[in-house]
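Recall from the previous chapter that SMILES is a line notation for molecules. Here it describes S-adenosylmethionine.
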Amino acid sequence: MIKSNPNEPTFLFDDLPLHWQMTRCEKYAFASLVEIAHPDVAIEIGTYKGGSLQIISKNSKKVYSIDTEVNCRENLSEHFDNVEFLTGDSKQLLPALLKRISNENESLGFILIDGDHSTEGVRSDINGVLQYKPVRPLYIVFHDSFHPPCREGILAADWQLCPYVHFVEVDFVPGVYHYEAFDTAPPRSMFAGLSVALMLPEKRNHELIIYQSQKGLFDTVLPHSIHSLPRKSFLSRFLNWSRIRR
Ligand SMILES: C[S@@+](CC[C@H](N)C(=O)[O-])C[C@H]1O[C@@H](n2cnc3c(N)ncnc32)[C@H](O)[C@@H]1O
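With both inputs in hand, we obtain:
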């Protein structure tokens, strides 16, 4: 039995049947953010089993949901009548989609980035979005900011080069440490965490700070996780110490 389930119990989401890969506290924050954004048009990168799409679809007129897996469309089309499923790599699909949205004068108000979790994948998805000129407040949410490669990608993105970015908080909702294996996460792994950025149609006239309010938590947990280099065992450290003393 898993003793540290960060997702349950929960009481607001009984009407959402599809598996959703976010923690309980992220689900509440995410639902609230999508409701605040109240977008005409939204984009999701990382459809998976449709979990987060349930909330995005409910609160948007139209959604584009991107995933590399072709069976996302096959399995989920019947659940959503306002979603266009796009199959392929977001690195290729996102720039064309953003151009299409601009050309068709659609009002993009929300993006979830939750696809390729490699450093380069996350960085590329964010930099793709930063090429877009918003026509209304655009809320961007990224999942798994506590997962070290994702965090590195978020921090490496070209935030400062985009004049329409007004706010970035990497630790809007802090992530979790999976002491035991959980869902697709291995033991001692760091996952979850929601980052939020806000783009506005007007250019910013203030310094852009990339907030990391829980950097201390991240730095403290990292050495105890599978993401850090193997730590020397107590025995090898003791043998090393006694060799030096001799
Ligand atoms: C963590 S899951 C998404 C979870 C979902 N958003 C939720 O909250 O339940 C990540 C998904 O991204 C997809 N993916 C991975 N790399 C991708 C890429 N380069 N472009 C598009 N989708 C990708 C995977 O196939 C997988 O379905």
